[in-house]
Design a protein that fits this description.
single chain, Beta-galactosidase, Chain A, domain 5, 3 helices, 22 strands
């Protein structure tokens, strides 16, 4: 159990950053500044909520989310690492790796010149995670909360040989009605359609959602925009260090089976994940590092 008084003494910022116990006994850090607000769980260094000041939420957190040590949280920005999806060779290992369900430590907190707040986290490898990932690897997440939300996921290879990782920021975006939104920026990209046996297809026009959707878009490094006419806003997704984009919505039947979406929760969320997935994995040389960086901000709809 983290000593919250010690965290607040070392990293708390008066009127801006406070560490406290959240739902299910999980420790969280709450950030409120002149530019925006957010909540981040120390488990997984997972952003749970974020909104620019005076704006509706941009990050979706299920009202039926379950909070418990070692269990994934439905919503927010889970960190998928060091692999995406099922493990390539060991079916019993957890999907999307272990980073999202283990403790991280806080290593820094500061106020930036523009009034935003930066939080720095480092993954703690325990015996179970070392058994799954027997490499000398450092993983940090640098989260900046303000009028925009930035996350820089940094993997450093301290091993003597190269490592290969897959990773993703599995972001759940808040939308008014997923049936009405459009995703722009993926036009012309090839994608693997997991709802059609993984067939390779090509995107024509903006992406729309009208059924269960699970796609990995390849060769996708341009900005994506989630146009939401009811909220009269677009969510702009900028990224670096990622050449694949995952679009996911479980729709009705699957969301009900999952048990932590709530009734009709699927209508108000859309995952657009900046990733290194499928064949888009990253090899890091000894002493090298890889940054998966994203920036989310809202704009008036064109």
């Amino acid at each position: 159990m983290t000593d919250l008084s010690t965290l607040n003494a070392r990293f708390g910022l008066s009127g801006q950053v406070v560490f406290k116990q959240g739902s299910g006994g999980l420790d969280v850090v709450e950030v409120v500044n002149s530019r925006g607000s957010a909540t981040v769980a120390l488990q997984g260094a997972q952003v749970l909520t974020w909104a620019p000041r005076g704006s509706p939420p941009v990050i979706w957190l299920s009202r039926a989310a379950k909070f418990a040590p070692g269990k994934s949280i439905r919503g927010g920005v889970p960190v998928c690492w060091p692999w995406f999806g099922p493990h390539a060779t060991v079916a019993t290992l957890p999907a999307h790796g272990f980073a999202r369900t283990v403790p991280w430590v806080v290593i820094g907190a500061q106020t930036l010149a523009d009034g935003a707040t930066r939080l720095d986290f480092r993954l703690v490898l325990n015996e179970a995670s070392r058994a799954q990932w027997p490499h000398a690897t450092l993983l940090e997440s640098h989260i900046t909360v303000g009028a925009a939300l930035e996350i820089d996921l940094v993997t450093r290879n301290a091993d003597r040989s190269a490592i290969t990782i897959g990773d993703a920021l599995h972001t759940y975006f808040e939308v008014s009605d997923v049936r009405q939104v459009k995703i722009r920026g993926l036009e012309g990209c090839p994608y693997l359609d997991k709802m059609d046996g993984g067939k390779r297809k090509t995107q024509t026009g903006p992406v729309t959602i009208g059924a269960e959707t699970d796609r990995i878009y390849l060769d996708s490094s341009a900005d994506c925009l989630i146009d939401d006419p009811s909220l009269k806003r677009s969510i702009r997704i900028r990224k670096r260090g990622s050449h694949s984009t995952v679009v996911w919505n479980p729709w009705i039947e699957k969301s009900l089976k999952m048990g932590d979406f709530g009734e009709n929760g699927y209508l108000n969320m859309l995952c657009v994940e900046s990733a290194n997935a499928a064949d888009d994995v990253v090899t890091i040389a000894p002493g090298g590092e890889h940054h998966l960086w994203v920036r989310y901000e809202i704009e008036p709809m064109n």
